[in-house]
């Protein structure tokens, strides 16, 4: 069977559902692993995901569902990871087979705590997956817009550019235009940081700062991102490319951004716990904020916007005072 072979999606949420829609535009059949058997049963009864993007209808004859992660891996050649980063470890701990001979596509825009490892680094160190057998999905690609078949421009990054091109062909259809890159670490780091900055953007929105201020905030955030990514992963890149800047912009401004929504709740006075309960979905940036802070203990990059978000979320510092300090001393 030619690359990428039989594909399986890992995850039962919004992003996994959008990825399944994309894959089925190219593939005749996919496998799909969901942790909860009752979600699979409800899916089979209704023809759509009962909890997420329920407007997207699926031909069930083209999907084999699994609640057994080991069987799903054994029956597949390429694994698409679309679970929240804090839960990746708990999923993989149930696995009783090797990933070393599989091709892994990480669509996880987060970092693995508490090791503070990028997903690709985690898979290489703990599951012996070669960098040549891993790709990531970056760039501006909200699941809700994919469900609506609005034009979407992801970036597929892999150390093996030929494999990146092959995966891009799987993604491409009349509403998805995938580009390729070999900057795996840089795009992964940017994906973590843009969630943190989207929380900052949401906090400022919740505090009723206007569009003019938001523009200055995001301009400073992209400079921060460039400093951090270039020091942690020093290769030549254009931070203005959509895999970096585009993903930052859509996550900071879109009404579909759960990180921005989470931040807006904090800005309006919600506690972190209350905002998490009301959201009902994971805001990756909450976890990414702590991971970035801890990673930066080694590099000491100047990242005042990310540091502000950390103090608000983890040290209970008042949001209005933190933003006041930021705008008076740092933003320009």
TrEMBL record:
The protein's name in its UniProt record: Glycerol-3-phosphate dehydrogenase [NAD(P)+]
Residues engaged in binding substrate: 109, 258-259
Residues that, per the record, bind sn-glycerol 3-phosphate: 109, 139, 194, 247, 257-259
Residues at the catalytic site: 194 (proton acceptor)
Pathway connected to this protein: Membrane lipid metabolism; glycerophospholipid metabolism
Superkingdom of this protein's organism: Bacteria
Native source organism of the sequence: Dysgonomonas mossii DSM 22836
Residues at which NAD(+) binds: 87, 143, 258
Catalytic class of the enzyme: oxidoreductase
One annotated Gene Ontology cellular component of this protein: cytosol
Matching InterPro entries: 6-PGluconate_DH-like_C_sf, 6PGD_dom2, G3P_DH_NAD-dep, G3P_DH_NAD-dep_C, G3P_DH_NAD-dep_N, NAD(P)-bd_dom_sf
Domain (Glycerol-3-phosphate dehydrogenase NAD-dependent N-terminal): residue spans on this chain: 6-162
Binding residues for NADPH: 14-15, 35-36, 52, 109, 143, 258, 282, 284
A molecular-function term among this protein's GO annotations: glycerol-3-phosphate dehydrogenase (NADP+) activity
């Amino acid at each position: 069977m030619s690359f990428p072979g039989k594909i399986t999606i890992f995850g039962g949420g919004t992003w996994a559902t959008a990825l399944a829609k994309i894959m089925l535009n190219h593939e005749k059949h996919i496998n799909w692993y969901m942790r909860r058997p009752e979600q699979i049963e409800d899916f089979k009864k209704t023809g759509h995901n009962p909890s997420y993007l329920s407007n997207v209808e699926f031909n069930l004859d083209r999907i084999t569902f699994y609640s057994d992660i080991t069987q799903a891996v054994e029956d597949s050649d390429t694994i698409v990871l679309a679970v929240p980063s804090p839960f990746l470890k708990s999923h993989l701990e149930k696995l009783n087979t090797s990933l070393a001979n599989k091709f892994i596509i990480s669509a996880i825009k987060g970092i693995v705590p508490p090791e503070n490892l990028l997903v690709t680094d985690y898979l290489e160190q703990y599951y012996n997956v070669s960098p040549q057998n891993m790709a990531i999905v970056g760039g501006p690609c909200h699941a809700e817009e994919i469900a609506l078949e609005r034009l979407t421009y992801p970036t597929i990054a892999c150390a093996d550019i030929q494999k990146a091109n092959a995966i891009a062909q799987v993604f491409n259809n009349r509403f998805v235009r995938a580009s390729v890159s070999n900057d795996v670490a840089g795009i992964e780091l940017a994906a973590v940081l843009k969630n943190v900055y989207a929380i900052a953007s949401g906090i400022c929105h919740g505090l009723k700062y206007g569009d003019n201020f938001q523009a200055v905030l995001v301009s400073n955030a992209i400079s921060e991102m460039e400093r951090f990514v270039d020091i942690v992963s020093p290769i030549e890149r254009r931070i203005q490319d959509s895999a970096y800047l585009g993903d930052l912009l859509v996550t900071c401004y879109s009404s579909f951004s759960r990180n921005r929504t989470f931040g807006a709740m904090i800005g309006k006075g919600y506690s972190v716990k209350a905002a998490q309960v009301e959201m009902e979905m994971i805001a990756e940036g909450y976890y990414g904020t702590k991971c970035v802070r801890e990673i930066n203990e080694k590099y000491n990059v100047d990242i005042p916007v990310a540091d502000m978000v950390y103090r608000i979320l983890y040290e209970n510092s008042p949001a209005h005072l933190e933003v006041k300090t930021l705008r008076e001393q740092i933003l320009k």
